[in-house]
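Workshop exercise sheet. Pairs work together: one partner reads the sequence aloud, the other fills in the structure field after running the prediction. Swap roles for the next sheet.
Pair: D.N. / O.F.
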Amino acid sequence: MVLIGYWLIEKLFTFEAYKTRNNRGFIIRQITHHKTKQEKERQREKLINMEKRVLYGLVVMLMYLVGGGYSQGVVEWIRDKAEWEEILVKTEIHIGVMVTSPLCGAPCDIVNDQVARFVETYGDRIKFYKINVLETLFFALDYKILTVPTVIIFKEGTINLRFESLSDWGMFYELLVNSSILDFPPDLSPAPAPAPSDSDPDADLPPPLQSGE
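Structure field:
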């Protein structure tokens, strides 16, 4: 009986050890599966970001091929702080500044075309400039530029609008058109007719009919 008891105890411990190994293996498989799923999600995000960059490039190429590009709009570069301060003081209309960088890539190319297109149509309402954030660090420090592209609209020397981290810069032209920049369109109504002179009230009346003899 004692031997049978020892045998049963040994089998019981053997079974528990086997079950523990199986549970441990199950947990390891679950962790491995979870890590594999996370890696797949990261790869999927990388592919999506790559597709977005490719799409931005294709949009820019399409705009140039179909529309001939919008590079005709005059958008000048700001080179130093003294030049910027003079522009800020002397310009009477809205001022737009597009902050860009050579490392920006497709988003900055799209904004550049959108801005040039807007200037072509509404250049009498706003004067646009471009700033390379790597060459004009004063602007990045003064206006806390954290990302490119960033577009800032100034009115009477102060910030009126600010655009940054947009999900779709391809809609930037529409955002500008619907912004406060165009709140006061020029008066295109016909000029009123001149009022009759007060000195001679009968001057504008037709001559009286002559009766036949």
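Discussion prompt: Residues 2-67 form the longest helix (66 residues). What would you look at next?
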